[in-house]
Amino acid sequence: MKNNPSFTLVEILITIAVISVATFGSFIAFNQFNKYQNLNVSYENLKHSLNIAKSNALAQVINKCNTSQKFVGHQIRIITTTNPDSYVLEEVCQNPLGILPAEPSYRIKETKFPSDVSVTSGSNTILFLVLTGKVRGTSDISVILTNGTQNKEITIGTSSGVIQ
């Protein structure tokens, strides 16, 4: 036999196997990175929306309340009954005495979380009160975002309105 500088079938199969394992490993790493990025972006967007609600309440930004209603503040309402979970930025007003509902809310913006991100919260409504920026409630509110393997938590202080 001549000395032929070609590859044998075994060498080709081993090369294909190594490339397949490397491709599969990088696919898993990319998928995990994508899930982490979805969680991180959702966390930052929710935190930003909470800051908008607080600053709108402090600045008395009124878009939807009419002249017969008293402006109460802005709130984030977390909706976990939909798939995917979502949250709504709302303006809260108070009707004159005796008119129901006592505090109607007007939707300003709704944001949906990616399908792999879910939310748990101590309170589904986080209301920032006008002028003070404090949150209605007696204890701090915790909102936890998860993608199944990782968690990110936002804490809102009721006495101070500080978002961490």
Major β-sheet strand ordering: 3-2-1-5
Average pLDDT confidence is 89
**How would you name the CATH homologous superfamily?**
minor pseudopilin epsh domain
What count of helical segments does DSSP give? Answer: 1
Name the shape in a single word.
Answer: rod-shaped
Largest sheet: 4 strands, antiparallel
Overall strand count: 7
CATH architecture label name: 3-Layer(bab) Sandwich
Radius of gyration: 25 Å
> Which segments are poorly predicted (pLDDT under 50) over 5 or more consecutive residues?
none
Beta content comes to 25-35%
Distance between the termini: 75 Å
What is the CATH topology descriptor?
A: minor pseudopilin epsh fold
Give helix and strand order, one letter per element, not per position.
HEEEEEEE
Residues in helix, %: 25-40%
- The structural class is alpha+beta
CATH class: Alpha Beta
Count of individual domains: 1
